[in-house]
Specification:
The protein is α+β, with helices and mostly antiparallel strands and 157 residues long. The chain folds into two domains: 31-97, Double Stranded RNA Binding Domain; 101-155, no CATH class. It has five helices and four strands; from the N terminus they run H-E-E-E-H-E-H-H-H. It has a four-stranded mixed beta sheet with strand order 3-2-1-4, with helices on one face.
Length: 157
């Protein structure tokens, strides 16, 4: 400390981060950071026996299989660990290849699910409106719902 009570330059907690000390810092270098968050595309293909084949095109020889998609996902991360470091930090991007008929069924489901969600919201608005004009129990009886459910819907407004 100086005689006037102020700290002298370079003696505080920031002094240990001086330019000369940065190389000894435990922070991750830019190259290390890029390696730590590396992204790998994983291609999943359903074979004729119903098993999922998984492969990482960027890593030669990295492939596995699973009886289910989730099993193939966990196994491909394990297989990737044999080829790269820091696999626990790697981002795996799914590229699921399905036959045309299955892709069509998935698309049909998603459209129907979206339509059902919109209809559910429309039905809930109607139930809330009715609950605003009638008692909760009368609205519930007319809508074939429990009075507790009508109460929940009414509270959302």
């Amino acid at each position: 400390m100086r005689h006037d009570g102020a700290r002298s330059r370079g003696a505080g907690p920031t002094a240990r981060y001086a330019a000369g000390n940065r190389t000894r810092s435990r922070t991750l270098s830019w190259e290390g950071l890029v390696e730590a968050v590396k992204s790998y595309r994983v291609v999943y293909v359903l074979d004729e026996s119903g098993h999922w084949l998984a492969r990482v095109p960027r890593v030669k020889g990295c492939h596995t299989y699973g009886r289910s998609l989730s099993e193939a996902r966990s196994r491909i991360r394990e297989a990737l660990g044999l080829f790269v470091t820091n696999v626990e930090h790697a981002e795996l991007v799914d590229d699921i290849r399905l036959p045309a008929e299955m892709r069509r069924l998935v698309a049909t489901y998603r459209v129907a699910r979206g339509r059902a969600e919109r209809e559910r919201k429309h039905a809930e608005r109607a139930a809330r409106s009715l609950a605003g004009h009638l008692s909760r129990r009368d609205a519930a009886e007319l809508l074939s719902l429990s009075h507790q459910r009508v109460q929940q819907l009414a509270e959302r407004s």
